[in-house]
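Translate sequence into structure tokens.
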Amino acid sequence: MNFTVESDIGLKRTINEDRAAFFVRPDRFKLAILADGMGGHNAGDVASEMTITGMQQLFELVDSSQLATKQAQLEWLRDAVSHINQQIYQYSLTHENCQGMGTTMIAVLIDQQQCVISHVGDSRVYHFTNESVELVTSDHSYVNILLENGEISEEEAKIHPKRNFILKALGTEVSIEPDFYEITLTDDSHLLICSDGLSNKLTTEEMVEVVEMNISIQEKGRKFVQFANDRGGEDNISLILMTTKQEV
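Result follows.
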């Protein structure tokens, strides 16, 4: 599996509150994780950094026997996210400058071509194959609720005044219940994990164009960032792109 990780401050922000990382163990397990610190709260960068480092520590320590089945992987992810959520929440209570901080989170536990995904917030996962593209996750946002209920159109969602209002985030409450998804990668898969600094700037069709470019996966990652910045770069831009395909 080839992968690339990008995190860019964008053109308008003074600090990058996003974090993204890809961890590879000596056995068959890998972990991709992305966190977008909440820009409207204090210390979003602290929350996102705590998420990445905390998940890394738990991932490196867990015994492979505890990840032997898909159910075990789901349970480990649920417990790990709950633990990190409590850490961030307690930290915010004891550090005045961090009160109210939070972060989105995408964690993808990879077992060869099987992926178990834990999701909180409005960061996203897209799965691309030669035949199709699928938005795997569903945003935990006010606008997405309106969209799912048919109260607004997709075009209206893009300009809605509350489009950045998140209904669920890591660290803002004492407990959290993420959404979970499962994906089986094929021999032609690309998996894109990204913050809304990217997904708000490119259409799905434009993402497909980048994925299908005859360039290396690292160049594709840089193209995504470039396009988001070319369209204003008002937010931090972060992504993890991985593929099972043989790249150039």
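Note: The chain has seven helices and ten strands.
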